[in-house]
Design brief:
Helix content: under 10%
CATH superfamily: Exo-inulinase, domain 1
CATH class: Mainly Beta
Number of domains: 1
CATH architecture: Sandwich
Number of strands: 15
Distance between the termini: 35 Å
Number of helices: 1
Amino acid sequence: MRHSLPGILLLLPALLVAQEAGHAHAPKIEGGGVFPAGWNARPDMGSKLADIKLETMPPGWHLTTAASGILYRTADRMTGAYTVTSKLHLFPEGAGHREAFGLFIGGDALDGTAQRYTYFLIRGDGTYKIKRRNGGAATDVTPGWTQHAAIMPGKPDGSVANVLSIVVGKDKVSFQVNGQEVYSAASTSVDTQGIAGVRINHNLSVHMETLEVKQQ
């Protein structure tokens, strides 16, 4: 069944109300662990695939989570210079719930213990952070959560959209929100060569309207 995005915006608040009580204890995800053709997911350590749900919902896909993790298509393995862009709609977060979502690049060995990738996240409070994962450890690239005016903050009575992009060049990686660079790093200081996809933390409802991965 096809849905328009305005229709999705009207239907999903009821789902969020049911989930708000689950912030202290992760809500049960109905239909989790089964993904559209071509998609893979990896939950963080200690969580299950069933705690992540990705469903095709034109335009794009809808993500509902009881656990944090990454979602990706193996066809989106990139080398050299490329750009990853996604338009992500965050639905109401409720009372003080601040979890992060965004993009990752440079993914390798994603189905094993030696996984690695660099990820670029935003939160509903208008902040961003960039981190690197290597196996079971994650280290900060940026110092803590940083406020930036380019990020549209979440609101309690409706969805908010942000367009996230990572532009990988020969010498520089640019991290952008709504067309504005919020941070840049030397290409040698982050993971760039590998699979690109999305990362989403637990207890979130996010509509991914687009995900474009293209060579420059």
